[in-house]
Amino acid sequence: MALGWFDRKRQDSGEWTGFLEQGVRLEGRLESAGTFRIDCATKGTLVSHETLILGENASVEGEIEGNYVIIAGRFNGTVRAKGKVEIQTKAIVTGEIFTPCLIMEPGALFDGRCHMLSVSQAASPIVIPIRSVAAHA
User: Fold this and answer.
1) Which string of DSSP letters, residue by residue, matches 44-80?
2) Distance CA 55, CA 57 (A)
3) CA-CA distance, 128 to 135, in Å (whole number)?
4) Buried b (16+ CB within 10 A) or exposed e, 55-81
């Protein structure tokens, strides 16, 4: 599985433009034209025109502006997605999400507000307060 995330069949579209591995610390603004994966501590603004993946080891604080955002690690802040946001099983998300499509897998934790937008983003958002806590057996 180490190279599994390079499998283009699993991605919607776009070229891989890079990744930040565990042990790296980034503060500031990062912009990516293609698919980008983050598995490190990051504070600031992330802008992605394709797919942005926050891996299981990611700890991100700040803002995300993207098309398709996948969160498997920790995120605290605001996500603005034109396409969809996917919160995976082990993810912990705190803050606000603006998106036309939200996918939450069982076990994911989300504490914040979700603003469901129309695809054209012309309509006023529908605000849905959500608090989710996974049961630990």
Assistant:
1) EEEEESSEEEE-TT-EEEEEEEEEEEEE-SEEEEEEE
2) 5
3) 22
4) beebbbebbbbbbbbbbbbbbebbbbb
DSSP state of 5: G
Cross-strand bridge partners of residue 112: 95, 130
pLDDT tens-digit readout, 77-136: 999 999 999 999 999 999 999 999 999 999 999 999 999 987 665 334 556 666 666 544
CA–CA separation, 57 vs 37, rounded Å?
Answer: 11
Q: How far apart are CA 9 and CA 104, in angstroms?
A: 21
Q: How many residues are there in the chain?
A: 137
All structural domains of the chain with their residue ranges = 18-129
